[in-house]
Amino acid sequence: MKVDAGNYLRPDQGEVRIDAQPVGDGGFLHQVGYLPENPYLYDHLSLLELLRFAGQACGMSAQQIGERIETLTHQTGISHALKQRLRTFSKGMRQRAGLCFALLHDPQLVILDEPMSGLDPLGRKMVCELILDLKHQGKTVFFCSHILSDTERLCDRIAILHQGRLVREFEADDLRAFRDKERSLEDEFVAAVGGGN
Amino acid sequence: MLKRVGALALVTCKEGIRDRSLFGILLFALFVLGLNVAVAGFFMRDLGKVTVDMNLAALSFAGLLLPFSRGEYIYGKYLGLVLLVVCTLALLLVFSTTTVAGVNAMYPKYFGGFTWSVYFWAVAFIGVQLALLCAIVVFFSAITTSSFITLIFSVATYLVGVSIEEVLFYLKSQAAAGEVAASETLRAVLEVVAWLVPNFAAFDLKTEAAHGLALEPMRLLTSAGYGLGYVLILLWLATLIFRRREFN
C-alpha cells in the first residue's frame, strides 16, 4: 500500500504503475487519496484548517474546498467538530478526519489502510457506506482489513496476504459463493494461512 | 507549485505558533529580556533553542499524504520554520527595542556610539543566522527519522559553527606567540574548514552594534551571500536525500 500510495516504500523488485504511470513524484499523486493506519494529522490545527490546507495543497479553488468540506464532514458525521482542534479528537473522530483528508480532492484511486480501525459500530457502518458510495461513483477503492465480514460485503476482488506474500485471490464467482453462504471466507482464510500455524 | 508550498509553510508556522512549548520558551525569553540589555547575544542563544526544539514539528509527515513532491515538501517545511522564527524574532524585537530605548533614555552616557541602524542590521543578520540554523535542522531531519539524533547533530553543528572562529583566532594568536606549533598547512586547512562548516561568526554584528562601529557594505554582502548559498546547498542536499527516503 505504501508503494502504491506515493512511493513511501520502494518495491524489492518489479514496478508499480497506476494508469500506466510509474509510481513516483509525478502528477498521478493528485489521483490518489491515502489514509494510513495511524495518520499523523496536524494536532494544533482545527479540522476546518486541516481540510482547507488539504484543498489548497491539491490546487482546488476556495469554492470547491468549501463544498467538499461540507459534503464530506456531513457524510462522516463530524461537521459539528469543524472548529475543534485535532488534538482533542477521539480515535474514531481522528479516523473520520483522516478519511475527509484523504478524500477531499475527490481522487480516482482511494487507498485505505485499516479504515475501520478504532471505529464504533456506527462508525464502521458509515465507512462501509462511504466505500460503497465511492464504488458507485466509479472510483477504485483499495483497502486492507482484518474484518472479514466487511471485506466480503464490500469487495469485488479479495486477496489474502500472509507473512508478506500473496497466498489467495478471490474473484467475482468466489464472492458470489461467499454471499450465498455456499462457502465461507473465514474458512478459506484459515485454510490459506495454514490453519493459523 | 508556489501556492502549494506557501500553504504548507503557513500550516507549519501555525502549528508551531500553537505549540505550547514555543510559548513557554517565548515567555521565558521575555522574562530574561527584562533582566538583560545585551540584546543581540541574548537573541541568538534563545532563538537557537527554539529553532532546534521546533525540529520536532518540522518534519511531521502529514503533508506527505497530500500530492506534494518530496522537493516541494522540504521547501514548504523550511519556509514554514523560517516564518515561525521570523514571527518570534519580530515579537522579541518589539520587547528588546523597548528595553534598549528605555535604558538608552535613562543612561544616555553609556550609549555614546550607539546607532539604531547598526542595531537593526545586527538583528537582520541574527535572522540570517537563524534561517541557516533552520536549514541545518531540515537537512538533518531529511537524513534521519529520529528527532533526537536530528537535535544532537543540529546542536553539535551549531556549536561548531559559533566556536570555529574563536578556535582559529586562538590558534593564530598562540602560534604567533610561539606557544603552539601550527604548520602553514594546518592553518590553511582550518581556514577552509571554518568556511565549510556553517561559520556563524560571519553573521555576528554584536560588537559593531554594541560599540556603534561602522559597517562595511562589502562585509554585509559577503555574509548574506554566504548564508544564502549555504541554505540553498543544504536544502538541495536535503531534497536529494529525502527523495530516497522510505517511510515505514
How does this model look, in words?
- Chain A has 197 residues and is an alpha/beta fold.
- Chain A is built from seven helices and seven strands, in the order E-E-E-H-H-H-E-H-E-H-E-E-H-H.
- In chain A, helix 1 (47-57) packs across helix 2 and helix 2 packs antiparallel against helix 3.
- The longest helix of chain A has 16 residues, at 121-136.
- The model of chain A has no long low-confidence stretch (mean pLDDT 85).
- By secondary structure, chain B is mainly alpha-helical.
- Chain B has one domain.
- Chain B has ten helices and no strands.
- In chain B, helix 2 (20-35) runs antiparallel to helix 3 (39-53), helix 2 packs parallel to helix 5 (70-106) and helix 6 (116-143) crosses helix 7.
- Chain B is globular.
- Chain B starts with a helix and ends with a helix.
- The chains are: A alpha/beta (197), B mainly alpha (248).
- At the A-B interface, strand 3 and helix 1 of A face helix 1 of B.
Q: Structural class of the secondary elements of chain B? A: mainly alpha
Major sheet description of chain A: 3 strands, parallel
The helical percent of chain B reads: over 70%
Total count of domains of chain A: 1
H and E order of chain A: EEEHHHEHEHEEHH
CATH superfamily label of chain A: P-loop containing nucleotide triphosphate hydrolases
